[in-house]
Amino acid sequence: MTISGLTRDVPADAAPAPGRAPLRLALLGFGTVGQAVARILTERTDVADRLRLTQVFNRDVARKRVSWTPADVAWTDSFDAVLAADPDVIVEVVGGVETAGTWVRRALARGISVVTANKLLMAAHGPELMTLAVEHGAHLRFEAAVAGGVPVIDAIRSGLAGDRFTRVAGILNGTCNYILSRMESGESMAGALADAQLRGFAEADPSSDVDGQDATAKLVLLAGVAFGRHVPAAQVATASIRRIDAIDFQYARRLGRTFRQLSIVESDGSGALRASVGPVLVPASSRFARNTGAQNLILITGRHGGATALSGEGAGGSPTAVAVVSDLLALSRVPANVAGPMERPWEPGCVIPPHATAYYLRFVVRDRPGILAAITTALARYDINVDAVLQERGFPKDQLPFVVTVEPCEVPALTAAMADVQAEGFHAEPPLVVPVLPEEDDAAPVQ
Amino acid sequence: MTISGLTRDVPADAAPAPGRAPLRLALLGFGTVGQAVARILTERTDVADRLRLTQVFNRDVARKRVSWTPADVAWTDSFDAVLAADPDVIVEVVGGVETAGTWVRRALARGISVVTANKLLMAAHGPELMTLAVEHGAHLRFEAAVAGGVPVIDAIRSGLAGDRFTRVAGILNGTCNYILSRMESGESMAGALADAQLRGFAEADPSSDVDGQDATAKLVLLAGVAFGRHVPAAQVATASIRRIDAIDFQYARRLGRTFRQLSIVESDGSGALRASVGPVLVPASSRFARNTGAQNLILITGRHGGATALSGEGAGGSPTAVAVVSDLLALSRVPANVAGPMERPWEPGCVIPPHATAYYLRFVVRDRPGILAAITTALARYDINVDAVLQERGFPKDQLPFVVTVEPCEVPALTAAMADVQAEGFHAEPPLVVPVLPEEDDAAPVQ
After folding, report:
1. Measured between beta carbons, which residues in chain A are less than 8 angstroms from residue B14?
2. CB contact (8 A) between residue B290 and residue A290
3. What sign for the dihedral angle of Cα A394, A400, A401, A403?
4. Over the stretch B64-76, which tens digit does the pLDDT of each residue have?
5. pLDDT score of A318
6. Distance between CA atoms of B273 and B257, rounded to whole angstroms?
7. Is residue A397 among the annotated active site residues?
């Protein structure tokens, strides 16, 4: 069931009801995104009759104050002052779950609509906040929380609403994609990460990007919008890209493949979902592989329309601000006599195990006779068929990397087999296990 | 100025006003798209409270009648009978400008909303029909008229509405893209076209596809939605792909490039537009080159969000039907007390000449001394700098193809120089002139 059948949200491509006063906007957070939002609102005189920035809130606001915003904007570091001014919409671009969550709740409880870029907050508390919005006739929009300027939520809710979705899959974290596509060109992970940090893609602590929490939060939101279900982040099978090594790209190339961090949510048609985030071995000819740099790419697959791809800037102040302002324009189009959305909050989602999948298994061993026999015997014990064995030359005997790929198998069988394998004493480091995207699934255009 | 600042259209991602009866839909045309629309409406029981198919109109309707639609659907071949039943929305998937135009006008004049897939009708009469809709409180939507299931109109109007657009560029005709990407793999144009016809991509008479009229009509609609301007199709610089030959792909490969039919509309920021449709020599690494088969790809570029790409099935019954049903769902979300759109009809657009552009010039000559001298002298006469001269071996002397690429120049200079060149007697066939997409313009993701 698609969300379009479930929700009553604000109009998105309509214009303001005639005679309606501009929405008075309080901007919470004047960092990179907040400043970019203020800049668009200041520059776009063509929407001045619809959107008016009236307040900027930031901790220690004096040091943030700029001269290029409209002169009548009130600058404050008191959230109570924001509420007291009774704005129509609060734009939350502060981030973080606790404090921002408190502010968003207080705003919604007063019937003040909220536009947020806060993926962690929405992933953790989306249904609760949506319920609060419904109860108080307020709107809650979050296009900016997923894939920055790429209007994927709008596409699911509106432009593709006529379809019945079966899968949403994508590259939702630009940092991981940047790192992996640099490694594909021969860079080390440490070098690619340092470069991403230098360019401002990656945080000083990149854990949330490389370990998958950032993409997981976004996937939770996409699952909600596409399938009307709330999948707690903890239930998404999440794997880190940290252990992908230069050698893995060497082996991947021999397989005609490369690595990407993919986030995938699929419906089984009955309301249960499959959801995963992590490195995947994808065909070199697939759209995922061809998506390089920090770009995001989302494939929305429906029963009728096939796969539709959206890609673009997934982060950065200005693209994210475009998503915020698009949400604000949508709010400005709600007729004044429509009290608020009756967006039905996402229902609890049931997460089921992944399909049987092929896997890439990379071992680094202290070489001795019988290793391959031990591994293949363990796999055979659980009815797992070996697809290929690859071993490049020129590595030291005590640190020998090689790869086994296996045909599609269920997770429990693989887990059991790998437990047996890991019990062996020949490992120089723990094996790496990465799922393989099927060829027919690569969503490459039909030739 | 973006259309979002100009129009008042229906809500797109809202749900129906509470208690509102389902929209009664009359389907005009029961061909491939019409049947796919009926199938989605019949299958999607989750939207039965919002959309109800009540009539199917087709010439000689008896032979079209099927048993899988709801039993209470009325089948008719009388348009008067359709109007007499006073449906809420007419879905026009008949095609053609004259008769369909008459029907759409009669519906709008009665305040009946129209959802259409008819690009030729909208390109020719969009502003007039939009005015008629406004006057009678009806809605007029046409997502299906551009790029089938790829929700590009919705993205421009809604998801990216916060941006200020500078350019919309894309592959809008799947047949041309199929032909050119097959030719890239060594197929002849005749062979690729026959194959496209066999697969149902191309019509028996492929003129409208290969000569650019189909893409031009779509570009006119995108210009309207993105820039609020109506550019008559006749003012779009339109070129055919017919004269691209196998040899051209050979030379393109040497240049690290390939050919695609591109449709481009750009704003100069003051309301004037540049608009063109035709073959372009694009970098092999560009997204345009990597879009193969019959897929459509549209890049929407804005001042703030950079380039956002959408791609997917540009034609076919089911993808087109998804766009139609998405439009119908949007209409079902209009609160009942909102009389109709006040969509401001597109203003007349002013088309200005293209930027100075590099060109690929391919000659086929009866070889004799002095030919290159004659060509380069003519080019120099108009201050056009030669970039490269390429000549492959192994061709007959009386039918010798070679290529000259020139640095960016204005159209009048090139036209004058080529007139001088064509006056020479050495041509075995007329020269081929194709613009070259700048490298920096290829919208490839940042590495």
Report:
1. 8-12, 334, 341
2. yes
3. positive
4. 999 999 999 999 9
5. 96
6. 27
7. no
A309·B305 Cβ contact <8 A: no
User: Which residue's structure tokens are 């916060």?
Assistant: B162
Alpha-carbon distance values, A329 to A89, A111, A333 (Å): 11, 18, 6
Q: Please state, in angstroms and rounded to a whole number, the distance separating the CA atoms of residues B331 and B116.
A: 13
Structure tokens at A213: 């929490």
How many Å lie between the alpha carbon of B192 and the closest alpha carbon of chain A?
A: 11
Distance from C-alpha of B226 to C-alpha of B215, rounded to nearest angstrom = 16
Residue A45 Cα, gap to closest chain B Cα (Å): 10
Considering only the beta carbons, identify the residue of B14, B158, B335 that sits closest to A154. Answer: B158
CB-CB contact of B298 with B309 (8 Å): yes
Lowest mean pLDDT among A2-11, A297-306, B24-33, B403-412: A2-11
Task: Kindly list the structural domains of chain B, giving each domain's residue range(s) and its CATH number in brackets, ordered by start.
Answer: 18-149+318-332 (3.40.50.720), 162-311 (3.30.360.10), 357-437 (3.30.70.260)
Asked whether A287 and B291 are in contact (CB, 8 A), the reply is no
Buried b (16+ CB within 10 A) or exposed e, B199-228: eebbeeebebbbbbbbbbbbbbbbbbbbbb
Which chain A residues touch B148 with a CB distance below 8 Å? 305
CA B21 to chain centre: 35
Helix (H) or strand (E) holding A237: strand A237-238
Q: Do A318 and B295 touch (CB under 8 A)?
A: no
Q: Is the pLDDT of residue B267 over 70?
A: yes
Enumerate the residues of chain B whose CB falls inside 8 A of the CB of residue A318. Answer: 304-306
Going by C-alpha positions, the residue among A89, A138, A94 that lies closest to residue A117 is A94
